[in-house]
Amino acid sequence: MGEWGVIAALTGRMPAGPLTSVGIGDDAAVVGAPSGSVVAAVDLLLEGRHFRRDWSSAYDIGVKAAARSLADIAAMGAVNTALLVALAVPGELPASWPLELADGLAAEAARAGAGIVGGDTARADSVLLSVTALGDLAGRRPVLRSGARPGDVIAVAGPLGRSAAGLALLSAGVAVTSDALAGLVSAHRRPSPPYEAGPEAAALGATAMIDVSDGLLADLGHIADASAVALDLDSSALDAGQPLAEAAAVLKAQTSSSSRTVPAGSPPPTPLEWVLTGGEDHSLVATFPATVHLPPRWRIIGHVSATPHADASGIGITVDGAPHAGPGGWQHFR
Q1: What is the pLDDT of residues 132-165, one digit of tens each?
Q2: Which of 9, 35, 275, 285 suits a disulfide with 161, CB 3.0-4.6 Å?
Q3: What class is the 2-136 domain?
Q4: Prediction pTM value
């Protein structure tokens, strides 16, 4: 197809969205900002680091690439408006692969209410994606990491630990034999952030918010640091559910019977550990004044206090009043 053929085919699969007056085809796009401000976020996806083509379809990877950046916009309390996508791929890749990728990007952008307005293509030895998301605050103030106050409650919208459990199953080569396990693998391949919960939290008066990309403890640690507060989580409110328990049991059984182990760097196969340190669910976690009545999608999991605590990782987070042993989540350069 060549570069121009690929670009032409991609353009037809990626709608520009309602706020776009100039989309793909010029040197830059023009996207409206009704509130007068633009919220922007960018994320990289690298083959072998964030996805594997033998584990995920091109459509899966498109969904995941879009979700990572779109969730960051929602975590500011903003509404998603547009995506810019830069794609580098090997020249021998089948032409159907980037087209399927575009379908995944477009589907997830549409679910978030955004269009795709431009990007770039290049040749590389492996697949690399850079996705920039744009959003609008709709007249609201942004919800920062620095606003949590003593007395606030901590609440989460969306699942925790499911993507990490799915990754552990894939890494261990487990045969997926139940709907519960299949759901965890799907959660890793295609995260499904609750985008509407971001603006909803802002309207409810959320004092701080972040999406869970690197692990609940690690990401809440950013709020603790920025707000100069301590956060304590209630393990009884962090019920992992039956699918994570089933995954942990399957992995434990496989390890016992075959002497295989979960690869180094993966969380231990325990449901609570996945919930606390597993990333890439891209659920939203926020702090709210204790007087706020939260809708059902928000589950209270802890509270904010005035005296910072710091565990060995320097994260001002405790679980049931005690520091968590070990790393709090993913860090690229640990």
Answers
A1: 999 999 999 999 999 999 999 999 999 999 999 9
A2: 275
A3: alpha beta
A4: 0.90
User: 278, 161 in Cβ contact below 8 A?
Assistant: yes
Four-way CATH pick for 153-319: 2.60.120.200, 3.90.650.10, 3.30.2090.10, 3.40.50.790? 3.90.650.10
Strand (E) positions, 137-236? 153-157, 208-211, 230-233
The phi, psi pair for 305, rounded to 5°, reads -130, 170
Q: In terms of Cα–Cα distance, which of 276, 291, 285, 284 is closest to 152? A: 291
* DSSP string covering 91-160: TTS-THHHHHHHHHHHHHHHHTT-EEEEEEEEE-SS-EEEEEEEEE-TTPPP--SS---TT-EEEEES-S
Token pair in block for residue 22: 């100039």
- Helix axes of 2-11 and 96-111: crossing angle, nearest 10 degrees: 30
Q: CA–CA separation, 72 vs 151, rounded Å?
A: 25
Domain map of the chain by residue range? 2-136, 153-319
Q: What are phi and psi of 185, to 5 degrees?
A: -65, -40
Relative to beta strand 298-305, strand 79-89 is unpaired
- Kindly report, residue by residue over 100-140, the tens digit of the pLDDT: 999 999 999 999 999 999 999 999 999 999 999 999 999 99
- As beta bridge partners, residue 46 has 128
